[in-house]
Design a protein that fits this description.
The protein has one helix and four strands. It is elongated, with a radius of gyration of 14 Å. It has a four-stranded mixed sheet, with no helix packed on it. The protein is an alpha+beta fold. It has one domain. The structure holds zinc ion. Zinc ion (ZN) binds next to helix 1.
């Protein structure tokens, strides 16, 4: 089974993931899998989010 990895925030296709059988054991906990698409954050968006959450509201 082929899973497509797509960024949550910018909808960019990050890559493909080959899974023989989809169980909670072989899936990263940060992944949100819908059908055969896994929504995760690409490194760029992850970095941006880290900057935002590190900021204090003024
Ligand atoms: Zn992204």
């Amino acid at each position: 089974m082929k899973i497509l990895k797509v960024c949550h925030a910018c909808d960019r296709i990050i890559g493909e993931l080959e899974l023989d059988n989809l169980t909670s054991d072989n899936v990263d906990t940060g992944m949100d899998i819908v059908g055969n698409v896994a929504f995760i954050l690409c490194p760029g968006c992850l970095h941006e989010m880290e900057i935002k959450t590190g900021n204090v509201y003024h």
